[in-house]
Amino acid sequence: MTDYTTVSIPKDLAERVDETIEGTSFSSTSDLVRFLLRSIVIQHQQGGELTEAEFQEIADQLHDLGYLR
Length: 69
What we know:
- By secondary structure, the protein is an all-alpha fold.
- It is about 60% helix and about 0% strand.
- The protein has one domain (about 10-65).
- It is built from 3 helices and no strands.
């Protein structure tokens, strides 16, 4: 069984995330956050330090795949 922890984000951001994930395969804000964090951690582990440009590239790829608006 996997243990979980709580991550707090501002309500206005949560509302924006809810709008962003409408029509995607993400069923909740938590799903999107887990996916993004997993992607960032994997990228970091594979290549060391994650630059702002690399982070933006990940976000752009997610946008192109329809996960982000």
